[in-house]
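Researcher: Let's do a round of design. I'm pasting the structure tokens now; please hold your answer until I've finished.
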């Protein structure tokens, strides 16, 4: 029976995430795979294939609905927790892949707490995150960064932040930086209540081998350091700024 291989692979990945209790990732895969199957069923002429597709669509749709209710219940009770382990030298862990599914119109402001947004490549990582936030969060109005001050860069850190602040203003996003000498935790707090805690902060990518290798620009192709990502949800995050 000719079933779309892309849909099969996506749904299989969804089942893998589901088994690992990485429910929000599973939900994204189920929704993508279901859309492909629905589109295929609409253009299918063979009645047997259509009947098979209908059964599969209902099966995965029911599981997707179950996951939605489970995630909602865990959010309401404050018990939602997903963990992603990034293995050493693994790829496929850009910011968008890792937590892009939480970036939407419900996000009005973002707080990034990371003590190591100081050197050039670390500030470039923060710039990449800012680009993703602006593209994904249509109602974004504020980005707040809490980090440590780099007293060795002769003002470069301040200069980079000023340039970014000026550019974000064009997108009607206010950017503020607060410095802390005691900051240790690394987390991204979204006004929608999602909190992404990355063990190494934003700086979990290994440097590229050279300036003309894959992964220089596409971070899904960049090798990573080992780290753990914990995703939780809190109803106590202030919803507006």
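Researcher: That's everything. Go ahead.
Model: Designed sequence:
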């Amino acid at each position: 029976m000719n079933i779309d291989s892309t849909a099969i692979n996506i749904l299989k990945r969804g089942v893998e995430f589901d088994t690992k209790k990485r429910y929000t990732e599973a939900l994204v895969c189920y929704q993508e795979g279901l859309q492909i199957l629905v589109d295929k069923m609409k253009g299918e002429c063979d009645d047997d294939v259509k009947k098979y597709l209908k059964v599969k669509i209902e099966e995965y749709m029911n599981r997707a609905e179950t996951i939605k209710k489970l995630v909602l219940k865990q959010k309401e009770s404050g018990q939602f927790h997903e963990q992603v382990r990034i293995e050493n030298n693994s790829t496929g862990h850009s910011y968008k892949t890792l937590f892009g599914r939480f970036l939407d119109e419900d996000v009005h402001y973002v707080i990034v707490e990371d003590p190591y947004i100081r050197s050039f490549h670390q500030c470039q990582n923060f710039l990449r995150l800012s680009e993703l936030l602006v593209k994904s969060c249509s109602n974004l109005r504020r980005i707040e960064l809490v980090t440590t001050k780099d007293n060795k860069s002769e003002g470069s850190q301040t200069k980079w932040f000023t340039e970014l602040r000026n550019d974000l203003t064009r997108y009607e996003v206010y950017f503020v930086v607060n410095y802390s000498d005691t900051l240790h935790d690394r987390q991204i707090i979204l006004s929608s209540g999602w909190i992404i805690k990355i063990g190494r902060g934003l700086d979990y990518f290994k440097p590229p081998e050279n300036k003309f290798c894959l992964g220089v620009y596409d971070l899904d192709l960049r090798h990573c350091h080992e780290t753990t990502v914990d995703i939780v949800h809190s109803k106590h995050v202030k919803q507006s700024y």
